[in-house]
Amino acid sequence: MTDESRKSIHGQWSSRLAFILAATGSAVGLGNIWKFPYITGENGGGAFVLVYLLCVAIIGIPVMMSEVLIGRRGRRSPINTMRMLVAEEGIPRIWVLLGWAGVVAGFLILSYYSVIAGWAVAYVFRAASGAFDGATADGISAMFGDLLGNPESQLGWHTIFMVMTTVVVARGVRSGLEQAVRYLMPALFVLLLVLLGFSMNTGYFSDGLAFLFTFDVSKLSGAAVLTAMGHAFFTLSLGMGAIMVYGSYLPGNASIAKTSVTIAMLDTLVALIAGMAIFPIVFAEGLEPAAGPGLIFHSLPLAFGNMPGGSVFGALFFVLLVFAAWTSAISLIEPAVAWLVENRAVKRRNAAGLVGVITWLLGIATILSFNRWAFEFEFAGETKTSGIFDILDILTSNIMLPLGGLAMAVFAGWMMSKSSVLDELKMGEGAMFRVWYFVVRYLTPVAVGIVFLNLIGVVTF
Ligand code: PFF
């Protein structure tokens, strides 16, 4: 294999830093600021947070390293990377399905992700127009209810977000995206810190901290463990090829271990700060932590509505939430787009357009989940109220991503030859490597396996 054939036809990040920013852009998104607080609220707080942190550290980082190394080894879209490695390493062809499963997961996730990002777009305008000023909890709740009950308006916002996503993916790896994340990620971070400062002054900061960090095992159900593990994969963008395709654009000499640790730490930091900023507001306003997907759309407008300069600051916050979602959305369809460009010789622009339209259409099912098609069902002892949206969320975060991540760990740990893995990781065969190898070969499969066995009732904890 010559070095030339180890180059991606789609180009490459300009540096290791650019990859870190892009992958952090993918990881930091609605998962951190919207989803982490609401699922923490639904699952009782501290114990859930602890399981999530353990999953990120023990499973997430090693799986991320596997995904990046597979991507950089193949230097193609996930489907073709799997094809190539299967041929090169003499691995059963069934593994190519992993690439396909990732493409499907990307479509499914983005279809609902874009609808939620659309809510954030709507809230930019609401905040800027002063709609939150002096608001009461009831007023804000009615405003959110109006949006959920109105499919036409949600469709409009979803369309705007899908167009934004498609346009960036159409422009390719370096132009646009790489430039954008350079400024947007630090800006988001600064704004979160300002919001945190506000929360510290609500008088309820310690209640927020206690909720997030008090470990009470009795609150931990099997379903909560599955949700925490699923969220570790979701928040780090693992298990579907997004990080794999970004890894395929990573310069050959960059350290996979160091970059993965950095990305996971930044992602976790943002989630924890978001939690510490949001829960004190929730308690100060007497809101319900288990309010579900509407949590930040209730709590933050109340905070903005009652702070000086809240309309400017609120609009800015939702703008940045949209940007965080945007840099994640791009990575959700990049695997499919890269594959179309490679295999069908389609222009990137057209490939992005096609993928964008399919996702946009799928998104309509999520929009209708909150109104006309709403139905309730039970999952692992919990009542879910938003039909298709909940099904998509459970199917992707709780099932497809953990299984995909497990498969990637097994692929790097058992299927690829140790020499290729060592060659790609470039970290020698010291203690760090041995720990990683043990985790991907044994610990990840066993841990993910047990959580699933629990779900289907074979083991109980
Ligand atoms: N990590 C993103 C978030 O936390 O919002 C969501 C995501 C992006 C999941 C890309 C999966 C993915 F492949």
Task: Give a verbal description of the structure.
The chain has a single domain, classed as Up-down Bundle (Amino acid/polyamine transporter I). About 75% of the residues lie in helices and about 0% in strands. It has a two-stranded antiparallel ribbon. A hairpin with a 2-residue loop joins strand 1 and strand 2. Helix 10 packs across helix 18. It is globular. About 55% of the residues are buried. The mean pLDDT is about 90. The structure holds 4-fluoro-L-phenylalanine.
Produce the secondary structure layout.
Blueprint (H helix, E strand, L loop, with lengths): L15 H12 L2 H13 L3 H29 L3 H12 L6 H33 L8 H12 L2 H21 L2 H27 L4 H9 L8 H14 L6 H6 L8 H29 L10 H11 L4 H35 L3 H22 L7 E3 L2 E3 L2 H29 L2 H8 L5 H25 L6
Antiparallel strand pairs: 1-2
The structure holds 4-fluoro-L-phenylalanine.
Enter the CATH topology name. Amino acid/polyamine transporter I
Percentage beta strand:
under 5%
- The span between the termini is 49 Å
Number of domains: 1
Structure class = mainly alpha
Short note summarizing the structure:
With 461 residues, the protein is mainly alpha-helical. It has 18 helices and 2 strands. Helix 1 crosses helix 8 and helix 16 packs antiparallel against helix 18.
